[in-house]
Amino acid sequence: MSEAVKLKLSKKDLETDQDVRWCPGCGDYAILATVQRTLANLGIKRENTVFISGIGCSSRFPYYMNTYGFHTIHGRAPAIASGLKITRPELDVWVITGDGDALSIGGNHTIHALRRNMDLKIILFNNQIYGLTKGQYSPTSTLGTRAPSTPSGSIDHPVNPISLVLGAGATFVARATDTDAKLGAAILEQAYKHKGAVFVEMLQNCPVFNDGVWDAVKDDPANRQILLADGQPLLFAKGTKGIVMTPDLRPQIVDVGEGPGQTPASQLVVHKEAGSPVYAQFLSQLVQPDFPMPVGVLYRAEKPTYDQLATQQMEDAKAKLGLGDLNKLMFSGMTWEVGADGTRH
Amino acid sequence: METKNLERVVIRFVGDSGDGMQLTGTEFAKAAAEAGNDISTFPDFPAEIRAPAGSLFGVSGFQLHFSSSEIHTPGDAPDVLVAMNPAGLKTNLKDLIDGGTLIVNTGAFIEANLKKAAYKTNPLEDGSLSKYKVHSVDISHLTNAALEGSPLSTKEKGRAKNFFALGLVFWMYGREPEAEVRRIYQQFAKKPEFGEANVKVFKAGYHYGETAEVFQTVYKVPPAAFKPGMYRNITGNEAIALGLVVGAELAGKTLFYAGYPITPASSILHSLAKYKNFGTLTFQAEDEIAAMGAALGAAYGGSVAVTASSGPGIALKGEAMGLGVMTELPVVILNIQRGGPSTGLPTKTEQSDLSQSLYGRNGESPLPVLAAKSPGDTFYCAIEAVKIATRYMVPVILLSDGYIANGSEPWLLPNLESLAKFPVEHRTDPNGYFVYERDPETLARAWVVPGTPGMEHRIGGIEKDALTGNISYAPDNHEKMTKLRQEKVDRVAQDIGELDLSGPESGDVLVIGWGGTFGALRQTQQAMAAQGKSVAHAHLRWLSPLEPGLKKIIRNYKRVIVAELNMGQLRQVIRSTYLVDAIGLNKIQGQPFKVAEVTAAIEKELGGAHQASSVSSTQPAANA
Q: ipTM of the assembly?
């Protein structure tokens, strides 16, 4: 993209004339603003950008982005986005989804889009609750969540979104909180540039049905977040605490220092974005309330994308077999001619 | 040795599902086509890939009808039955005509197999086959003898016995063996030791017929008279795949096909996956829903998008099909029907997904539905489905069935240059653009694809304003949009050709059919008309909207019969649409109509009896 185009775009250019209909105080507003500002700064081509969503509060997102947009049906956004990306590889395709949409009703599509390394940017707004259907517990709700459908508390164990997507094969995995515009922008910029299956978990607040679910994390970032930096040890609490890996591969919080009962910084786990899958899974186990939550880029890998491979196969076939000739195709197999007398020749 | 000319022969090969009966049948069909006969085939196999050997439910059959005149069906009852084991004999003998020829592999009639087939005594010895011309041949033994000294294992040798049967019938019907020998070598080019063995056994079978003098007669079925032109043999699923490729070409678009494996639709995906050099993209999705979703995404991006399945998969696609109706995107959905409900009869044919096609989505969700009548016809239907979908901006369902999908017929190859192009244009002019502004003739909205500058817009599954496409919950707007979506489908009628009517435009009996029953219905009507009976047959290609030509004639007959392989799904539509007291001819056995069944039903109406007919012993939904 040229500098001229870049300079022209402002956040306002990415807003639509539609009234934003989320509840006052919803975390979605902050994410929307971050996305609009970041993409404007990146100087994207609006016509080559498509936002696709499923169903849920977050899935209204495309209506507010002045790009191409498709608000689809519950859970199916990754499938629909895949069809678009395979046939139109030049487009930037973003998928906006929620914890219910992506991890419950659409779990299968999420898994398979990621394992194919489909070049989609999937942004999941995780508020641990169903909002649009009025407050039922979701697949990420903690055990014991009291909701209209679980008056005695939920009895199913939540899914860890990061563990799941790492297992499925995402090649870019990151996390930020909804109101952290600076980190959000940094992650989105890298997500935009990554070629392959992106998964970003946005810790998002639902002020109506699950207010404050991430407050512990958001209100005390120094102690409850680990800001990941490639090549740097896992540190928090202003560098006074860190994470080590126990001999049985579990994370453990330690006091950092050279004194008695303290662990030298050199023994802490060092963050590597392109680390091993085992390390990435280790990182995913750092969740509240027992641990501060890592934010930033958790994992990154380079792999051919589905659309690249599909295009390659097509080019190979054309090179090997020549451009398809429909007449030849029709006449393939055993053919015979019937003459004017109606019999075979 | 005597040579007898026959007008037509129906032969059925039966054996274990591992016996290679499908291959034997297919090869013999090729030979018949090569010799210039008209052919029609009916493969009938179990859902189990390799059912336990010798079991009754593991029997696989292939029926071939070849003729020196035009035929439309694989034949009611076999004249010749080739039974490779007792289970095959047990399950198929009832269909063999009295006095028919029975070729039996005696080598398989051992105690254990007889027991598995629930025979108390050996039918070859107890006189129960006396009304047939029985040829007892120990094919198992003769196959092994032919392969003496071959490096193959005993088990591998045993697998070649279908080629013995093939050789034998080649000789019986005076087919030239050379072409077959070449084909076998070709087919087994990668495993030459198997090719060699199969050729040996094939020749042994052929020479056995010649030398053993068990057959007194060689039969000849002279070539049929065909329309001049180039021909090939084709199955419904092969032809539908070709039709999609050609349809996309005529539209000037790339073809995107998403599917999930399901019987009997899978082979369409197999065919298209080989056409990458035509720019065809295929996608094996994680499930049926994803296949439909991916097709929608591709349509949104401007491709000719297609998905296919059978009833169970179509049920899963329903919600996404509704999204296609709502967002008015062109997608072609193929339903290769099989017996239902639920998993039903995966490898058997039925026409029981018509109601599902017409109504199987939430809300008022109309879309055009058409049905192919024969293997070769699927080619033209596929093109028509692509054309209507892109012209009207609407998902289109094309119905086929297991019988059409797997059955084959000689197919007059179309002249591609003679097929009318229908190039798709994507609007690129942003001036005065409204997302749901419509073409006055077709009511289609403009197909604006991502990547077009200045026309960025949002669509979705929520009801939208009739002009701007913005979300709208306005009461009047919803009613307006609902009616518009219906009217768009209704207007497809302007692109529907003449009604396919055979027989008088008024008279005693009108038989209405649709889809794969065409052959049996048309053949019956023609035969009865030739006897001077006042019978007409209208075959519907379009089920939604209904063909305009039908309305003009439906009241001109004393009796109207709706014949279909279900409980009366089209009949319900006909009755409610035209207020005509249509009578049902229904069969729900996973098998196609026989000409005799249709004839009996029509005779009954000609005789004045006015009640629902059924070919099954139990009466389906009576309507009288």
A: 0.96
Task: Please tell me the predicted confidence (pLDDT) of residue B621.
Answer: 40
Per-residue model confidence as pLDDT tens digits over A93-114: 999 999 999 999 999 999 999 9
What average pLDDT does this structure show over A15-23?
94
d(CA B418, CA A98): 51
Sketch the domain layout of chain B as residue ranges.
2-220, 232-418, 500-614
The beta-carbon neighbor of B225 closest among A84, A109, A342 is A342
- Give the percent of chain B with pLDDT over 70: 97
- Does a cis peptide bond (omega within 30 degrees of 0) precede residue B341? yes
* Cβ within 8 Å of A, B 394-433: 413-414, 416
| Contact residues on chain A for B449, CB-CB shorter than 8 A | 88
Q: Do B297 and A81 touch (CB under 8 A)?
A: yes
Q: Are B254 and B287 in contact (CB under 8 A)?
A: no
Which residues from B are below 8 Å from A321, CB to CB? 277
CATH second-level architecture of B500-614? 3-Layer(aba) Sandwich (3.40)
**CATH number for domain B232-418, candidates 3.40.50.970, 3.40.390.30, 3.40.50.720, 3.40.50.2300:** 3.40.50.970
The reply to whether B500-614 shares the fold of B232-418 is: yes
Predicted confidence (pLDDT) at residue B614 exceeds the cutoff of 80 = no
pTM: 0.93
Question: What is the SS3 assignment for B545-601?
Answer: CECHHHHHHHHHEEEEEEEECCCCHHHHHHHHHHCCCCEEEECCCCCCCCHHHHHHH
Read off the pLDDT of residues B297-320 as tens digits, 9 standing for 90 and up: 999 999 999 999 999 999 999 999
Instruction: Report the CATH fold assignment for B2-220.
Output: Pyruvate-ferredoxin Oxidoreductase; domain 3 (3.40.920)
**Chain A residues within an 8 Å CB radius of B319:** 73, 76
Cα B145 to Cα B147: distance, rounded to the nearest angstrom: 5
Measured between beta carbons, the chain B residues lying within 8 angstroms of A91 are: 301, 450-451
What is the secondary structure of A183-213 as a DSSP string?
Answer: HHHHHHHHHHH--S-EEEEEE--BTTTBTTT
Q: Which of A327, A329, A340 sits opposite B228 (nearest CB)?
A: A340
Note the pLDDT tens digit of each residue in B327-382.
999 999 999 999 999 999 999 999 999 999 999 999 999 999 999 999 999 999 99
Sign of CA dihedral B330, B332, B333, B337: positive
- Look at A330 and B414 and tell me if their CB atoms are within 8 Å: yes
In order of their start, the domains of chain A are 3-213 (3.40.50.970)
Q: What residues pair up with B102 in beta bridges, in sequence order?
A: B81, B134
B302 to chain A, any CB pair closer than 8 A? The answer is yes
Contacts with A110 from chain B: Cβ below 8 Å: none
The residue behind tokens 């102690």 is: A223
Query: Which residue has better confidence, B537 or A7?
Result: B537
List, edge to edge, every strand of the sheet that includes B8-16: B38-44, B59-67, B8-16, B80-83, B101-105, B133-137
Q: How many CB atoms lie within 10 A of CB A17?
A: 8
The whole-number pLDDT of residue A4 equals 46
Do B456 and A46 make contact, defined as CB atoms within 8 angstroms?
yes
- Give me the total of CB pairs closer than 8 Å, taking one residue from chain A and one from chain B: 220
Question: pLDDT tens digits, residue range A236-246?
Answer: 999 999 999 99
Share the mean pLDDT of chain A. 95
Measured CA to CA, the distance from residue B532 to residue B190 in angstroms comes to 57
- pLDDT tens-digit map of B368-418: 999 999 999 999 999 999 999 999 999 999 999 999 999 999 999 999 999
Contact A69 B276 (CB under 8 A): no
